[in-house]
Every structure is written in C-alpha cells, then in structure tokens.
User: Fold this.
Amino acid sequence: MANNRSRYEEALNKGHAHSWDQRWQDAAREFEAAIAEFPMEPAPYAGLGMACFEMGQLPRALESYKLAARYSQGDIIYLRQVAEMQERLNQFREAGQTYMTVGEILLRQRLLDEAMENWHKAVQLDPNLLGGHQRLATVYQRQGNVRAAIREYLAIARVLQMQGDAARALQTCQAALKLDPRHADVLTAIEMLKQGETIFLETETAAVSSGKSVFDSQEQPPPGIEEIATPVQEARRMAMEQLAEELFEEEEPAASWGTALGISRLERDALLSQALDYQTRGLVNEAISNYEQAVERGLSSSAVHFNLGLLYQDKLRFEDAIRQFEISVQDREYRIASHFSLGECHRARGRIDKALEHFITVLKIVDLGTVQHEQADRLIELYENLSDSLLTKGEPEQATAFANALVEFLSHKGWEDKVKEARARLDALSYGDRTMILGDILTAGSEQVLESLYLSQEYARRGMYTTAIEESYRAIQLSPYYLPAHWQLGEMLARQDRREAASTKFMTIGDTFRARGDVNGALNAYERVVDINPLDVPIRARLIEMLKRHGQIDRSLEHYMAMGNSYYQLAQVDKARETYQEALKLAPRGSAQNNWRARLLRAIAEIDMERL
Assistant:
C-alpha cells in the first residue's frame, strides 16, 4: 500500500497539538501513525521521543531520539537529545561518545567554542574518554593555555596507564613537561609512572575532569621568563641586574675579566649584551649559545652560571642545568634558589631522594632565618630527623607529597611573608623548650590540621578544655601520624588535670620519637611525663639513663635531685639517700657552676641529721 503524505502530515500535526496540550498518550499515538506512513522521517521520532520522556518511558524515548538522529543524517538537535537521555539513564560512556560526535560536527562548522563545550561535557561524563582529552589538549596548546593543556595531558597519561600502555603515558608526560619544565603535577606523574603507581586516585578523576589540579588549586601561568618559581624568580632578576651593571662598568673588574681569561672587554660586553637580550625576549636557544661562548672563553660568575642553568632547565637539559647550579650554589646570594632549582632538576630526572635533599636544605636555610640563635642547633637537628624519616624510613608517596607541598609553599609571590606568618603560628603552637619547624607545616598533610591545633589552644586559653581536646582529636583524625597533634592532645589532657591519660600520651610520643631516631624529641616527651607526675620514679629513672647515655650530664643530675626528692616525699628515705649517693659518682662530670657535689652532699647530710 502506498504511503499517504496527507495522512502523515495530519498525524504529525495532531501529535504536535496533543504535545502542546500535554496529552502525551494521544500525542504518542499520532506520532506512531505518522511513522507508519513514512518510517524514515526524523520529525515523528523526535515527537515520540518527547512524549515518551514526559510519560517516564526513558528507554523508549532514547530509541526514538536515536532514530530521529539517524534519519536526519546526524542533526545536532537530535544528537543532543540522545546524549541527554543517555545521561539520564546513567549511560555515561555512551553519552560521552555522543557529545564527542556533536563536538566534531561543530568543529567542522568552525564553531570551536561550542565544540569545546561538548568535549568538556564528554570527559566529565567519561573521564577515561581518550579522544576527548586529546582534542582538548590540542586546542589548549594551540591557544597557548598551558595550564589547561597540561591538565589534559595528565588525563591522557592516566587513561593510557589504565590501558596498560605505560610507555605512551610517559611520552605524554614528557610532552607536557616541554610546556612547563617546573610543573609539579607533571613531575609527580612521571615519578609515579616510573614507580609503577597509578597516576591519580579514583577520587581524583573528577578533579581532573573539572579542571582543578590534583595537587594544587593555584592558577599557574604559562612558562616564560617572568613566571619562574620564586625564590628562583628573585635570584634570576638579581642575576640579570648584576650582569647588566657589569656592562656599564667604566673600569675593568679586578682580575675577573680580560685577556688573561682569553676574552676582551669588548667581546665580553657583546656576548653578555646579546645573551641578556635573548633571555629577556624568551629566545632560549640563542641566549644559551651566547652564555656558552662566554663560559668557554673563560668568563665565570655565579650570575652567568645561574642564568645558564635556568635556560638549560627550560629546554629540559636537566643534567647540564645541574652542573651550572652546582657552581652557583656555592655563592651565598644564589644558595637558596640554586638548591631549589637543583631539587627541581633531580626530581625531573626521577631522583626523588636527591631532590628532597636540596628541597629540605632550602627549607632549613629559610627557617634558620626566622628563629633565635639559641634555637638553631635544635632546628638543624629536627631537619636532619625530617630528612632521615623521608629519605630512609618514609614511603615514596610521603616523599612526593612533601616535595609537592614545599614547591607549592615557595612558588608564589609573597612567600617571605608566608614564612613569617608560619613561624609565628608554629611558635604559638610550641611548648616550653619544644621547637617546631616549617617542615611540620608540610608534613601535617593539611592546613586544617594546624588550624585545629590553633583553635585547640584558643579554646584552652578560654578554659574550654573539653572543646580544646575535641579539636586536638580532629587534628589527629586528619593526620594520624603527625606527632605535634598528639603532643597538643597531651597538653590539653594535662591542663584538664587528667594526669594519667596525659602521661600515657607523652610516653607513647616519647617511644615514637625514639623509634624515629629523634633522641631529643623523646627526652622532651619523657620530661613532660615527669613534669605532670613528679612522683613517677620508674619513668624518671629511665629518663636519667637516656640522658647519661647521650652525654647530657647536667640534665641527668637535675633529675637525680628530683628523683631523690620524690623518694623523700614518699617517705622512702633510704631510697632517697641511695639516689643522691649514685648521683655523686656522676657529679664530677657536671658543669662547675652548678656545684653538683656540694648540693648532693648537703642533701645527704640533711637526711643523716634527721636520722640522728
């Protein structure tokens, strides 16, 4: 039987009229009648799809929209309706593919912005959609949006790794590294690939797809001359200023330049002038060539080596950069920036241990400038313990997380002010002789940890000890292995006069410090135990032995005196006398100004007089 065009038109019109009146069952019946007349027309399928959707028949609506898209030869309107139905039915992978198709059609129509919107939608629904990330990475790179391009390259690398193609994943990361040789996320991804670890956790997929960096939330500008990470940026500015000043010197510098080094003043000025000009304009290869010629001719200064190192680093010539920074690091003015850059270069080469050595040195130098002279020795010791725990006892994830946190901490303008603020906060969190270091901020795992500790102290100052303890517990939940949080809890328990619980906590902290090799940390913790409970003689005896073993004679003798007094208060006079007598053997090794022998003999004499 021949198809009837007028009957088709009539059914289609009636279907639209019923849809307008929201009589969906009648509309569906009319659209089906139209389809019966002309089964390869898209319009009735689209109408039927809408009617089915309104009646809650989503699978049938999806099939109708698919047929509408097929018979319309891929009309974008119908394809978007297909994608919407797939999304509502939780068919995220299929929806992602459909949005990709829409994006490709829009690209052919030269509607790039609309195409990118659909590709973004595609990878949000299916984060493992390789084609979507590849399209976005290509466009972002052409647009010069380095941060967004790197984000997509990392997503591509993750997908390739999941597909078992680690080699291509590593190549993708190397391509991203060319866009920004100092990008922390890329360096971390390379480390993880080389260690055979998954680049991102499952919970991080959404962050990648939504455009947020997994490791930091700071907007990072594209690489260039002015965007070198501080404190490197300041050192670079200083190096260029020093070299520029030398160009305008009227007199020949004493013995550092000249024909004795195989280079005349005129030649030197020409090479330096060109190198600085090229470097300022971002012509890296040309700048490198001029600096290299100057160095080959015998020209040597920390500014030249530091600048050359930065340029090598920009070109991913990390081994060459390392050789230059190892020269400039000997100059006090370039020490911090050179250590920082050495850390970045070693990290880019996958040598996380070497990178951490330099990063920790940077932090130690910066931190030493914030404390009193008498705190310096303990601070240095704490950094040695930190280095030991990260390099020899820690997990690779801990080392990587620390490196990320340090780069983030020092890689933004105003980092000096951040250091001062951090030191003030750390000093507020310290107790007695206990010192905290900037490394504590980076090992806390979250700023929320320190915020909870600060709030805990504030509550304690107001006498709200229960709330203060709750905040301390919250900090421990956020970072279970962060000892300052446990120390704070011990202090809060002590202030609430819960002596037994506080003593137990400090004993555990002391044992942990001992296991980590931090003797002074352990001693401080055990001393808090006897401060809280002065009559705890066994703990004081253990403390005395530790102090003697580590050569801290005066502190040992102080505790001998305190232990003797404790025995005396417990009415164990013989024990008290024995303790003083034992301490007399150690007294000659104590400092003369403390007059230990006389003090101990007097205590013994008082006991003997009472007996008489």
Summary: The chain is about 75% helix and 0% strand. Residues 201-229, 253-260 have pLDDT under 50 and may be disordered.
